[in-house]
Sequence to fold (328 residues):
Amino acid sequence: MRTRYTTRQGFILTDIISRKLGVDERFTILDGGAREALSDPRWQVFDPSRVRLFGFEPDAAEVENLNKEAADRGLDYQYFPGALWGTQTEVTFYENKSPGGGSCFPQNTDLTDRWKFQNQQDAFMSTDIFYPTGTEQWQTTTLDDWAEKRGGADIDFMKVNVQGAELEILRGGETLLPNVIGIMAEISFVESYKDRPFFSDIDSYLRAAGFEFFDMIGLHYMGRSASDVTASHLPGLYPLWGQLIEAHGVYFRDPIRCEQKGEDMSAFTLEKVLKLVSFAEVFGQVEYAFELLGWLEKHLQGKGSDKEAADIAELSANGRHLYMSLLN
Fold:
Protein backbone atom coordinates (compact mmCIF):
# COMPACT_ATOMS: atom_id res chain seq x y z
CA MET A 1 0.00 0.00 0.00
CA ARG A 2 1.35 3.42 -0.97
CA THR A 3 1.72 5.85 1.92
CA ARG A 4 3.59 9.10 2.46
CA TYR A 5 6.33 6.94 3.95
CA THR A 6 6.70 4.52 1.04
CA THR A 7 6.76 7.47 -1.38
CA ARG A 8 9.31 9.36 0.77
CA GLN A 9 7.01 12.30 1.33
CA GLY A 10 7.50 11.82 5.05
CA PHE A 11 9.60 9.81 7.51
CA ILE A 12 8.36 7.79 10.47
CA LEU A 13 10.80 8.77 13.23
CA THR A 14 10.91 12.37 12.05
CA ASP A 15 7.12 12.65 12.32
CA ILE A 16 7.15 11.16 15.83
CA ILE A 17 10.02 13.41 16.93
CA SER A 18 8.35 16.50 15.48
CA ARG A 19 5.36 15.85 17.73
CA LYS A 20 7.57 15.20 20.74
CA LEU A 21 9.87 18.23 20.61
CA GLY A 22 9.00 21.31 22.63
CA VAL A 23 6.73 23.84 20.97
CA ASP A 24 9.58 26.30 20.34
CA GLU A 25 12.05 23.77 18.95
CA ARG A 26 12.90 23.94 15.24
CA PHE A 27 14.97 21.94 12.81
CA THR A 28 17.34 24.78 11.98
CA ILE A 29 19.04 24.53 8.61
CA LEU A 30 21.67 26.77 7.05
CA ASP A 31 21.83 26.67 3.25
CA GLY A 32 25.00 28.15 1.76
CA GLY A 33 23.65 28.10 -1.80
CA ALA A 34 20.03 28.91 -1.27
CA ARG A 35 18.34 29.47 -4.64
CA GLU A 36 16.79 25.99 -4.63
CA ALA A 37 16.02 25.73 -0.92
CA LEU A 38 12.29 26.32 -1.38
CA SER A 39 12.04 23.26 -3.63
CA ASP A 40 14.54 21.00 -1.84
CA PRO A 41 12.61 17.74 -1.17
CA ARG A 42 14.70 16.98 1.90
CA TRP A 43 13.28 19.95 3.80
CA GLN A 44 9.73 19.34 2.56
CA VAL A 45 9.45 16.04 4.47
CA PHE A 46 9.56 17.95 7.75
CA ASP A 47 6.49 19.54 9.28
CA PRO A 48 6.77 23.04 7.73
CA SER A 49 6.00 24.66 11.07
CA ARG A 50 9.06 22.90 12.52
CA VAL A 51 11.66 24.15 10.01
CA ARG A 52 13.70 27.32 10.27
CA LEU A 53 16.08 27.94 7.36
CA PHE A 54 18.74 30.57 6.82
CA GLY A 55 19.90 31.01 3.24
CA PHE A 56 22.50 33.14 1.50
CA GLU A 57 22.42 34.48 -2.03
CA PRO A 58 24.70 37.14 -3.63
CA ASP A 59 21.92 38.52 -5.86
CA ALA A 60 20.00 41.06 -3.72
CA ALA A 61 16.99 41.04 -6.08
CA GLU A 62 16.81 37.26 -5.88
CA VAL A 63 16.97 37.48 -2.06
CA GLU A 64 13.96 39.77 -2.11
CA ASN A 65 12.05 37.33 -4.34
CA LEU A 66 12.97 34.35 -2.16
CA ASN A 67 11.92 36.09 1.04
CA LYS A 68 8.60 37.08 -0.53
CA GLU A 69 7.89 33.57 -1.77
CA ALA A 70 8.75 32.07 1.63
CA ALA A 71 6.47 34.56 3.38
CA ASP A 72 3.65 33.86 0.91
CA ARG A 73 3.97 30.15 1.67
CA GLY A 74 4.07 30.71 5.44
CA LEU A 75 7.60 29.31 5.77
CA ASP A 76 10.16 30.44 8.33
CA TYR A 77 12.84 30.77 5.66
CA GLN A 78 15.06 33.84 5.90
CA TYR A 79 17.41 34.80 3.07
CA PHE A 80 20.35 37.17 3.34
CA PRO A 81 22.21 39.00 0.57
CA GLY A 82 25.89 38.35 0.20
CA ALA A 83 28.45 35.70 -0.65
CA LEU A 84 29.90 33.48 2.05
CA TRP A 85 33.65 32.96 2.29
CA GLY A 86 36.35 32.29 4.87
CA THR A 87 37.04 35.99 5.47
CA GLN A 88 35.45 39.36 4.83
CA THR A 89 37.03 40.36 1.55
CA GLU A 90 36.39 40.90 -2.15
CA VAL A 91 36.56 37.92 -4.47
CA THR A 92 36.25 37.47 -8.23
CA PHE A 93 33.27 35.39 -9.26
CA TYR A 94 33.58 33.64 -12.60
CA GLU A 95 30.22 33.53 -14.35
CA ASN A 96 29.28 30.56 -16.51
CA LYS A 97 26.98 29.71 -19.41
CA SER A 98 25.64 26.78 -17.36
CA PRO A 99 23.21 27.75 -14.56
CA GLY A 100 24.93 26.95 -11.28
CA GLY A 101 28.29 26.52 -13.03
CA GLY A 102 29.84 29.78 -11.82
CA SER A 103 32.50 29.71 -9.14
CA CYS A 104 34.93 31.83 -7.17
CA PHE A 105 37.61 29.64 -8.72
CA PRO A 106 38.46 29.93 -12.44
CA GLN A 107 37.21 27.05 -14.57
CA ASN A 108 39.84 24.53 -15.62
CA THR A 109 38.87 24.40 -19.30
CA ASP A 110 41.82 22.15 -20.17
CA LEU A 111 39.90 19.45 -18.31
CA THR A 112 36.26 20.45 -18.70
CA ASP A 113 36.48 20.89 -22.49
CA ARG A 114 37.09 17.12 -22.66
CA TRP A 115 33.73 16.38 -21.02
CA LYS A 116 30.44 15.22 -22.44
CA PHE A 117 27.22 15.72 -20.44
CA GLN A 118 24.68 12.99 -21.12
CA ASN A 119 21.47 11.30 -20.08
CA GLN A 120 19.62 8.32 -21.54
CA GLN A 121 18.24 10.39 -24.42
CA ASP A 122 20.69 13.19 -25.18
CA ALA A 123 24.34 14.20 -25.11
CA PHE A 124 25.83 17.70 -24.85
CA MET A 125 29.44 18.74 -25.36
CA SER A 126 30.85 20.70 -22.47
CA THR A 127 32.27 23.30 -24.84
CA ASP A 128 28.70 24.13 -25.91
CA ILE A 129 27.05 24.54 -22.50
CA PHE A 130 29.72 24.84 -19.77
CA TYR A 131 32.18 27.68 -20.24
CA PRO A 132 33.13 31.03 -18.61
CA THR A 133 31.18 34.08 -19.72
CA GLY A 134 32.56 36.91 -17.58
CA THR A 135 33.43 38.00 -14.06
CA GLU A 136 31.92 39.94 -11.16
CA GLN A 137 33.44 41.28 -7.98
CA TRP A 138 31.70 40.08 -4.84
CA GLN A 139 31.97 41.38 -1.30
CA THR A 140 32.03 38.40 1.04
CA THR A 141 31.09 37.77 4.63
CA THR A 142 31.58 34.83 6.97
CA LEU A 143 29.12 32.73 8.89
CA ASP A 144 30.72 33.79 12.16
CA ASP A 145 30.35 37.49 11.28
CA TRP A 146 26.73 36.92 10.26
CA ALA A 147 26.01 35.04 13.50
CA GLU A 148 27.70 37.70 15.64
CA LYS A 149 25.56 40.44 14.09
CA ARG A 150 22.46 38.38 14.87
CA GLY A 151 23.51 37.86 18.46
CA GLY A 152 24.23 34.18 17.79
CA ALA A 153 22.71 31.29 15.87
CA ASP A 154 22.18 27.66 16.82
CA ILE A 155 22.37 25.67 13.58
CA ASP A 156 21.46 21.98 13.43
CA PHE A 157 22.31 21.12 9.83
CA MET A 158 24.40 22.83 7.15
CA LYS A 159 24.15 22.40 3.38
CA VAL A 160 27.07 23.84 1.43
CA ASN A 161 26.93 23.28 -2.32
CA VAL A 162 28.74 26.26 -3.81
CA GLN A 163 31.08 25.13 -6.59
CA GLY A 164 34.33 24.92 -4.68
CA ALA A 165 33.75 27.44 -1.87
CA GLU A 166 32.65 24.79 0.67
CA LEU A 167 35.90 24.65 2.63
CA GLU A 168 36.20 28.44 2.82
CA ILE A 169 32.63 28.70 4.13
CA LEU A 170 33.28 26.06 6.78
CA ARG A 171 36.45 27.83 7.90
CA GLY A 172 34.47 31.04 8.27
CA GLY A 173 31.96 29.36 10.57
CA GLU A 174 34.12 27.79 13.25
CA THR A 175 32.15 29.28 16.15
CA LEU A 176 28.95 27.77 14.72
CA LEU A 177 30.30 24.31 13.94
CA PRO A 178 30.42 22.86 17.49
CA ASN A 179 26.60 22.88 17.69
CA VAL A 180 26.06 21.61 14.14
CA ILE A 181 25.10 17.91 14.08
CA GLY A 182 25.06 17.27 10.34
CA ILE A 183 26.56 18.61 7.13
CA MET A 184 26.03 17.95 3.44
CA ALA A 185 28.89 19.37 1.37
CA GLU A 186 29.74 19.21 -2.29
CA ILE A 187 32.92 17.20 -2.75
CA SER A 188 35.11 17.08 -5.85
CA PHE A 189 37.46 14.39 -7.12
CA VAL A 190 38.87 16.36 -10.08
CA GLU A 191 40.15 19.90 -10.56
CA SER A 192 37.16 21.22 -12.51
CA TYR A 193 38.00 24.67 -11.13
CA LYS A 194 41.63 25.65 -10.67
CA ASP A 195 42.92 25.20 -7.11
CA ARG A 196 39.52 24.16 -5.73
CA PRO A 197 39.65 21.95 -2.62
CA PHE A 198 39.25 18.22 -3.17
CA PHE A 199 37.22 15.66 -1.24
CA SER A 200 40.32 14.82 0.80
CA ASP A 201 40.62 18.44 1.97
CA ILE A 202 37.00 18.73 3.09
CA ASP A 203 36.99 15.25 4.60
CA SER A 204 40.12 15.96 6.66
CA TYR A 205 38.70 19.27 7.87
CA LEU A 206 35.34 17.84 8.93
CA ARG A 207 36.86 14.80 10.63
CA ALA A 208 39.16 17.10 12.61
CA ALA A 209 36.06 19.10 13.59
CA GLY A 210 34.41 15.96 15.03
CA PHE A 211 32.22 14.79 12.13
CA GLU A 212 31.97 11.27 10.76
CA PHE A 213 31.57 10.47 7.07
CA PHE A 214 28.36 8.52 6.39
CA ASP A 215 27.44 8.64 2.74
CA MET A 216 28.12 9.94 -0.75
CA ILE A 217 24.99 10.98 -2.65
CA GLY A 218 24.17 12.81 -5.88
CA LEU A 219 27.01 11.12 -7.76
CA HIS A 220 27.93 13.13 -10.86
CA TYR A 221 29.57 11.23 -13.70
CA MET A 222 31.02 12.68 -16.88
CA GLY A 223 31.59 11.25 -20.34
CA ARG A 224 34.21 12.22 -22.93
CA SER A 225 33.66 14.58 -25.83
CA ALA A 226 36.24 12.74 -27.96
CA SER A 227 34.26 9.48 -27.78
CA ASP A 228 31.82 8.65 -30.58
CA VAL A 229 30.12 6.23 -28.16
CA THR A 230 27.79 7.72 -25.56
CA ALA A 231 27.85 5.19 -22.75
CA SER A 232 24.50 6.05 -21.13
CA HIS A 233 22.76 5.32 -24.46
CA LEU A 234 23.95 1.70 -24.56
CA PRO A 235 21.28 -0.92 -23.73
CA GLY A 236 21.64 -2.83 -20.48
CA LEU A 237 24.64 -0.85 -19.27
CA TYR A 238 25.41 -0.74 -15.57
CA PRO A 239 23.79 2.56 -14.53
CA LEU A 240 26.99 4.14 -13.22
CA TRP A 241 29.13 5.27 -16.11
CA GLY A 242 31.99 7.61 -16.93
CA GLN A 243 34.33 9.40 -14.54
CA LEU A 244 33.01 10.31 -11.12
CA ILE A 245 33.82 14.00 -10.81
CA GLU A 246 31.65 15.26 -7.93
CA ALA A 247 29.17 14.16 -5.29
CA HIS A 248 27.69 15.35 -2.01
CA GLY A 249 29.28 14.06 1.18
CA VAL A 250 26.97 13.50 4.15
CA TYR A 251 28.54 13.86 7.61
CA PHE A 252 27.06 13.49 11.08
CA ARG A 253 28.33 13.84 14.59
CA ASP A 254 28.37 10.59 16.57
CA PRO A 255 27.71 10.89 20.31
CA ILE A 256 28.32 7.16 20.74
CA ARG A 257 31.91 7.49 19.52
CA CYS A 258 32.39 10.65 21.57
CA GLU A 259 31.27 8.85 24.72
CA GLN A 260 33.51 5.88 23.97
CA LYS A 261 36.52 8.19 23.63
CA GLY A 262 35.67 10.23 26.72
CA GLU A 263 35.20 13.44 24.69
CA ASP A 264 33.09 16.45 25.59
CA MET A 265 29.38 15.56 25.36
CA SER A 266 27.93 18.97 26.23
CA ALA A 267 26.66 19.61 22.69
CA PHE A 268 24.53 16.46 22.72
CA THR A 269 21.43 17.68 24.49
CA LEU A 270 18.31 15.52 24.32
CA GLU A 271 16.85 17.81 21.67
CA LYS A 272 20.03 17.76 19.57
CA VAL A 273 20.21 13.98 19.59
CA LEU A 274 16.57 13.66 18.58
CA LYS A 275 17.18 16.08 15.71
CA LEU A 276 20.24 14.05 14.77
CA VAL A 277 18.00 10.96 14.64
CA SER A 278 15.67 12.81 12.26
CA PHE A 279 18.37 14.09 9.91
CA ALA A 280 19.97 10.64 9.86
CA GLU A 281 16.64 9.10 8.87
CA VAL A 282 15.96 11.68 6.16
CA PHE A 283 19.40 11.07 4.63
CA GLY A 284 18.90 7.31 4.51
CA GLN A 285 20.74 6.33 7.72
CA VAL A 286 17.73 4.58 9.28
CA GLU A 287 19.78 1.98 11.13
CA TYR A 288 22.01 4.69 12.61
CA ALA A 289 18.84 6.52 13.69
CA PHE A 290 17.66 3.47 15.66
CA GLU A 291 21.15 2.88 17.03
CA LEU A 292 21.11 6.45 18.35
CA LEU A 293 17.74 5.93 20.03
CA GLY A 294 18.97 2.76 21.74
CA TRP A 295 22.11 4.53 22.93
CA LEU A 296 20.11 7.56 24.09
CA GLU A 297 17.81 5.41 26.21
CA LYS A 298 20.77 3.80 27.99
CA HIS A 299 22.57 7.15 28.30
CA LEU A 300 19.56 8.71 30.01
CA GLN A 301 19.19 5.71 32.32
CA GLY A 302 22.84 6.12 33.31
CA LYS A 303 22.14 9.72 34.27
CA GLY A 304 19.14 8.70 36.37
CA SER A 305 16.66 10.26 33.93
CA ASP A 306 14.33 7.26 33.98
CA LYS A 307 11.22 9.04 32.72
CA GLU A 308 13.02 10.51 29.70
CA ALA A 309 14.60 7.12 29.03
CA ALA A 310 11.16 5.50 29.07
CA ASP A 311 9.88 8.15 26.64
CA ILE A 312 12.73 7.36 24.24
CA ALA A 313 12.09 3.63 24.55
CA GLU A 314 8.43 4.22 23.65
CA LEU A 315 9.40 6.45 20.72
CA SER A 316 11.79 3.81 19.42
CA ALA A 317 9.24 1.01 19.84
CA ASN A 318 6.55 2.97 17.99
CA GLY A 319 8.96 3.78 15.18
CA ARG A 320 10.12 0.18 14.94
CA HIS A 321 6.51 -1.06 14.80
CA LEU A 322 5.66 1.32 11.95
CA TYR A 323 8.80 0.43 10.02
CA MET A 324 8.16 -3.30 10.41
CA SER A 325 4.57 -2.84 9.27
CA LEU A 326 5.93 -1.63 5.91
CA LEU A 327 7.47 -5.08 5.40
CA ASN A 328 4.08 -6.84 5.51
Summary: The CA atoms of residues 8 and 28 lie 21 Å apart. The first helix runs from residue 12 to 20. The longest strand covers residues 212-224.
